[in-house]
Amino acid sequence: xxxxxxxxxxxxxxxxxxxxxxxxxxxxxxxxxxxxxxxxxxxxxxxxxxxxxxxxxxxxxxxxxxxxxxxxxxxxxxxxxxxxxxxxxxxxxxxxxxxxxxxxxxxxxxxxxxxxxxxxxxxxxxxxxxxxxxxxxxxxxxxxxxxxxxxxxxxxxxxxxxxxxxxxxxxxxxxxxxxxxxxxxx
Length: 186
Hints:
- The chain has five helices and nine strands; from the N terminus they run ααββαββαβββαββ.
- By secondary structure, the protein is an alpha+beta fold.
C-alpha cells in the first residue's frame, strides 16, 4: 500500500481512510468479509502548561490527552479558581472557554477537546459565587455567570429535596453597605 498519512486524524477516521484505500485491491474489505483493525503503537508526548490549578506547571502528556484529563492531572481549579471560564490558549489566542459545569451538571463533554503541543490551560479567579443551602440536594458554593437565574443555580444544586417548601424561597443578598432579605415566590 505504501505510506498512508493519518496525522491529526482520530483512530476511527484513520481506520476509515486505510480501509478505503485497501478496499480497491482487497474488495473483501468493502463487502465486510474481511475486517481491518488499527492499533496505535507509539504515542508521542506533548508539552502543556496549566496555570491556576492546584498543581500548576508544565506537564508532558500523551498527544491524545484532552482538556478534562489534564485538568484532572493538575488537580482542578484552586479554591479561588473559576470552574466556568477556563481558557484554552493556543498560539497566544484563546481558542475555547471551558465551562466545567456543563460536564458536572449535564454530562456534556463538548468542551473536552484534544490538546496540542504548547497549549496553555489558564484558570482565572472566579468573578461571582453564591452559597445555596437549605432543602436542596447538593448545598454548596456555586459560580454564577451574569445571564444566569435562580433556576439555573437550583439546577446546579440538583433541585429541591423532598422536604422543601417550594412556594417561597428566602434569599439573603449583600451589597457594599448592607444585607438584604428578599422572598422569591416560585
